[in-house]
Amino acid sequence: MAGDLGNFSPAAVGGAPGVLIQICCVAYFGLTCQAAFLANCSLHLMPELLHTPTDGPPEASAPLRLLTWRLLMLVGCLLLAYAPVLAHLVRQWSDEPDYSHGFIVPIFAAWVLWERREELRNIAPRPHWAGLPIIVCSLALLVLGSFGAELFLQRISLPLLLAGLVVWFRGWPTLRASAFPLLVLLLAIPFPGVIYFQIVFPLQILASRLATWILHTIDLFPVLREGNVIVLSSTRLEVAEACSGVRSLLSLLTIAVIYSYVAERRVLVRWLLCLLVVPIAIAGNAGRVVFAAFSAEMAGANAVEGWGHFLSGIFLFFISTLLMVLGHVLILALGRRLGWVHANAGGDQ
């Protein structure tokens, strides 16, 4: 359930806490040592490696083989440290509909990196010492999160660690070029419980208020609101967490990020599209509550449960996605009228 997003028991993070702490400590030592060695390789061996023929004598390819083994050891340490964390994260994506979009986030981030491979390859490596403090802080968050069984700290440390490794091995220019896919990974990390419920309850009240206002405006049957409960003549409808808008907001935000990156080149329009999903999600969930109220009055309380409720959510998400695309068209039309969007503009603005 969403209420379990904050703190979990240590056993919920993949086994005995002592074993996980040992894994984190080993990974901390291994990552730090390998980072120092790989930084030296990047600084001193990279010019030679770029000009070393792959079909040359074994002595010429020895530095490349050594660097490859060190990279494999680094990846092994990462997998060893984060395997329990990632396994629990995938289970949460599968079990909680609020975060089912998490499956497509890493795929999209990997695709963006693949699309930018030529740009990243052409950036000259400039390893920087500032990557080491980032790596140390990230691993400290992992260890602290393991001690306290705080999943959010453990999960948030992974994108931070990847950023530190990029700076340590390749430098700030490469981090700037890969910042977007690294930030996208944050969409796949569930909120901690404290933040989640601070968002959910106000959205529940807002959705119930908006739905009550719509029902009063239509004025087909008497309606009374008590907090997040809508009282009808035949039944009472509670605007639960699932109807607060958080679920559709998170999923729509992910879709908006992907859609804006693929369909739009202007940075300002991309930001406007992402901001547009907030009112769309709120209005859409209020519309879902209105539909549930009509269904309960016409067909009874059972009409808003089971498959009817599930299908209405699917239909709502489809309509919200269409509204987002329509909003994109309206933003472009308004921008052309105001002069800050040109019809033939193809680059970022």
Q: Taking strands numbered 1, 2, ... along the chain, how are they ordered across the largest sheet? A: 1-2-3
Q: Uncertain segments of ≥5 residues (pLDDT<50)?
A: 1-19, 42-56, 344-349
Mean pLDDT: 75
| Helix fraction by DSSP (H/I, runs of at least 4) | over 70%
When the domains are counted, the total is 2
- The helix-strand sequence is HHHHHHHHHHEEEHHH
Q: N- to C-terminal separation?
A: 42 Å
Shape: globular
Tell me about the largest β-sheet: 3 strands, antiparallel
Q: Number of helix segments? A: 13
Q: Give the amount of beta strand, in percent.
A: under 5%
Label the structural class.
mainly alpha
Mind telling me the C-alpha Rg? 25 Å
Describe the protein in words.
The protein is an all-alpha fold and 349 residues long. The protein has two domains: 2-190, no CATH class; 195-338, no CATH class. It contains 13 helices and three strands. The protein has helices spanning 17-44, 46-50, 58-95, 104-115, 117-121, 131-148, 151-169, 172-177, 179-184, 193-218, 246-263, 267-299, 307-338; strands spanning 224-226, 229-231, 236-238. A three-stranded antiparallel beta sheet has the order 1-2-3, with helices on one face. α10 packs across α12, α11 packs antiparallel against α12 (267-299) and α11 crosses α13 (307-338). The longest helix is centred in the N-terminal third of the chain and has 38 residues, at 58-95. The model is unreliable at 1-19, 42-56 and 344-349 (pLDDT under 50).
Summarize the structure.
Helices cover 70% and strands 3% of the residues. The chain has 13 helices and three strands, in the order ααααααααααβββααα. A three-stranded antiparallel sheet has the order 1-2-3, with helices on one face.
